[in-house]
Amino acid sequence: MGISLCMIVKDEEDYLGRCLDSVKDFVDEIIIVDTGSIDKTKEIAKRYTKSVFDFTWNNNFSDARNFSLSKATKDWILVLDADEIISVKDMLRLKKELEEQDYEGYRLIQRNYSDDMANKKWVKITDDPKYDESKGYKGFVRNPILRVFKNKKDIFFSGPVHESAIETAKKNNLKLKTLELPIHHYYDEKKQNTLKERQLKYLQIAEENLKIKEDGRLYSKAAAVYFSFLKDYEKALEYSLKAADMGYNRENSLEVAAECHIRLKEYQKAYSIYKKLYESGYRSHSLCSNMAKLLLMHKKLEPALRMFKLALRQGHPDSEAIKGYISKISKQLNKE
Q: How many CB atoms lie within 10 A of CB 104?
């Protein structure tokens, strides 16, 4: 059994060495595909491997990923980005898991570290288990992602942006397993303008492809950029509704649409979406807290109190703020 680490990089001189140091003793070959670096990325890569290749950028991340896979010679593929690392103890766990060979692919848990509790997928860090790699962050956004799979020709990446191997893995009925094994992703460490530039680049690619063919996944990813980086809530609303209509991550897409309505001060439309989601059985801490705030705006104290309590039970990351609302409303109700 052998592992090929496959990476695509561009201008990652500040991060690549750290990434490679974390896994170099556990992989059997390192494949690095450079898509046009103008810094010292390739020079750093060559310190770790002779397998450094150039790829002419064509606005398609999957093409670059698949080119890296084509150079791999070992039984298993491990895919990482330059701003990610895996701890030593978890690489040992992963190696042991692969030796059992009961599965053909593994989803690992990408921890997108951030202190932004406003993100509805944000998870507060606990000490079980404790990771030095958390580096003082308060939390992260959890993202199960297929990053380890058998080196087979019928497993490859698809999608021009936010590329993934999951579609081909499912199409070929791969036996997959989710491991509670984190990939530590430090995307917030990069300067905000660099992060924004990268997201705008993703958006451009998504828009170009949407002109050719509608795709719910691309509509969803584009909506996120319009919402978070461009603050264009009307466009984010349009795209999130299209994603929902196409059945892509429908509940989450509708929740994004509701948040767009809130930013546009269309509170009744937002509440209508939340109410339908709630009545369908969908629950999230952000839905519950936002519904509660909308109810509070209309002086509906008891329903608001119930929703704040539910948001707390759903694990809302800003528990102190939610407890503050609960205390304040409870005091008002007691006075009445």
A: 18
How does pLDDT run across 223-271, given as a tens digit for each residue?
Answer: 999 999 999 999 999 999 999 999 999 999 999 999 999 999 999 999 9
Number of structural domains (the chain) is 3
CB 218 within 8 A of CB 242: no
Q: Find, among 229, 230, 231, 226, the residue nearest to 240 by Cα.
A: 226
For the stretch 105-159, pLDDT in tens is: 999 999 999 888 877 788 888 766 789 998 888 899 999 999 999 999 999 999 9
- Residues listed for the chain: 336
Residues 256 and 301 in one domain: no
Same domain, 81 and 128: yes
∠ CA(119), CA(87), CA(180), 5° rounding?
55
- Angle at which helix 319-335 crosses helix 301-313, to 10 degrees, equals 150
Three-class SS state of 254 = helix
Give the pairing of strands 84-85 and 176-185. Answer: antiparallel
Instruction: Indicate whether 182 and 214 sit together in one domain.
Output: no
Region of residue 78 (phi > 0: left; psi between -120 and 50: alpha; otherwise: beta) = beta
Choosing from 189, 213, 240, the residue where a domain stops is 189
Helices (H) and strands (E) in the chain, counts: 13, 9
pLDDT value for 192: 54
Structure tokens of 18?
A: 């750290």
Taking each helix axis from N to C end, the angle separating 285-297 and 301-313, rounded to the nearest 10 degrees, works out to: 160
pLDDT above 70 covers what percent of the chain? 98
Percentage of residues of the chain with pLDDT beyond 90: 82
Chain CA centroid to CA 74, Å: 28
Query: What are φ and ψ of residue 78, in 5° steps?
Result: -120, 125
pTM over 0.85: no
Indicate the burial class of 220 (C-beta count within 10 angstroms; 0-12, 13-18, 19 or more): buried
Give the three-state DSSP class for 10: coil
Average pLDDT, the chain: 93
